């Protein structure tokens, strides 16, 4: 498998404030890689360095074999970018916007095919200004795909979506994956990373604090929790082997003729792992 | 790719009613109004000139500033702030090609406006045709070049999409008034005349008057030409050092 992105020890400061303090990771071709973290953790700065919008202070970056800081045209032919916020000229139709961007690439995809892929075929002759918020995001994605990129950057693609729109967007991203695209996705939604990403890097205060598959992150970082009440006092037991621990606890209680009130066993979710990694207060915006 | 982008720029301009009215129709409307108010002859430096002619030259100058300075600043700031420029930077479209398309689109719009002004002058107000056609065409290009430089420079300094129309009009309308776009400025008090003496539009209008009324060459007044080019270059320098494709941080 080839490597699509290599980031090695990235540093970036804005006016003396360190936004990135040594970010390193690799993304393999064909992989959906999630960059997960709270607002201000450095997700967008990292992605914008990879996209060629920002320059790094130090560190090494290779995107599809190119240094994005030089933003060579050969690289821009092969990437698709969906920004956190962007709009298009309101007076153009969906097809016209796609056709405009298709004209920038040497080997664009068929415009109508892309419009259909992002589910806007019924709106293809509608002006941009008449589209709903979700439709505009799909237009955004369509424009990112019209150049038939190998690598797609999605910066918080579902922020502000209602649950139904998020599901639709997720299906779309899975479709992209099945087309063989490499996808770098930033998000502050844990379930999104868990649902879509093959691997997740958790970024916090400019550093990657954890990296692995969603299952690995859950599996390694946390033990199961057994909670119950004894004499009216809550008790929490953490264990790596909940079957054994539970057996011991219940046997002992039964032998002594007691009951474990409100007994429950919890497996950690990615959310627990994440909150543990980034600290609870950061998430309370 | 230049033609592809130019076609897009034209389509966008004419479909956007606000832009088409503010930029294209407004100078024609002002000419119609002022041409109806001012009567027959206006005396400049002791020479009588038909008011229709002097106003046509004045509004030609205003149109250049309005289209290239005002229009470009508004378009570029608007596109920058909603992320259109940022998005374009990630595509293979070369920045130079993009800027060239935007500038040729501006030139095309102003050339059409100049033709409309001359036709309106000829058939409604009985104004003269340009005495030096070649010089007149040169003035179209010179005006767009100078004010486009200033427009891109201004776009680099203006921070918000909300503020750009206000800034542009606060600069543009007093400048046009002081420079004599809306009527002769011979009787202006000293302070206003002194301000007018540094404005690019004043000198651009001198050149336009020269080629349009007197049939002079575009290069007849080297000082005026120099001042106009210097202003355009100053705008260009600001643009080259300060222009950003990225929206301002919010």
Question: What does this protein structure show overall?
Answer:
The complex is a heterodimer of chains A (285) and B (250). By secondary structure, chain A is α/β, with parallel strands linked by helices. Chain A has helices at residues 43-51, 73-76, 94-102, 111-117, 133-145, 163-178, 190-196, 214-221, 242-255, 270-278, 280-283; strands at 3-14, 17-28, 32-36, 58-63, 79-82, 151-155, 182-187, 199-204, 207-212, 224-230, 233-239, 261-266. In chain A, the strands form three sheets. Chain A has a six-stranded mixed β-sheet, sandwiched between helices. In chain A, strands 2-1-4 form a three-stranded antiparallel β-sheet, covered by helices on one side. In chain A, strands 11-10-12 form a three-stranded antiparallel β-sheet. In chain A, helix 3 crosses helix 4 (111-117). Chain B is mainly α. Chain B has one domain (2-40, 50-242). Chain B contains ten helices and two strands; from the N terminus they run ααββαααααααα. The longest helix of chain B is centred in the N-terminal third of the chain and has 31 residues, at 51-81. Chain B is globular and about 60 Å long. Chain B starts with a helix and ends in an 8-residue tail after the last helix. Chain A binds chain B through residues 51-53, 71, 73, 76-77, 79, 81, 83, 85-89, 91-92, 96, 100-101, 103-106, 143, 147, and chain B through 1, 4-5, 8, 11-12, 15-16, 82-84, 86-87, 89-94, 246-247.
Features:
heterodimer; A: alpha/beta; 2 domains; 3-stranded antiparallel beta sheet; 12 strands; elongated; B: 250 residues; mainly alpha; two-stranded antiparallel ribbon; 2 strands
CATH class of the largest domain in chain A: Alpha Beta
| Poorly predicted ranges of chain B | none
Proportion of residues in extended strands of chain A: 25-35%
Could you give the order of strands across the largest sheet of chain A?
5-6-7-3-8-9
State the largest interface: A-B, 26 and 21 residues
- How much of the residues of chain B is beta strand, in percent? under 5%
Stretches with pLDDT under 50, minimum 5 residues of chain A: 281-285
User: Which percent range fits the helix content of chain A?
Assistant: 25-40%
* CATH topology-level fold name of the largest domain in chain A: Rossmann fold
Gap between N and C termini of chain A: 40 Å
> Tally the helices of chain A: what do you get?
11
- Counted by DSSP, the helix tally of chain B is 10
Overall form of chain B = globular
E-strand count of chain A: 12
Average pLDDT over all residues of chain A = 88
Radius of gyration of chain A: 23 Å
Order of helices and strands of chain B: HHEEHHHHHHHH
Widest beta sheet: strand line-up of chain B: 1-2
SSE sequence of chain A, one letter per element: EEEHEHEHHHEHEHEEHEEHEHH
Describe the largest sheet of chain B: 2 strands, antiparallel
User: What structural category arises from helix and sheet content of chain A?
Assistant: alpha/beta
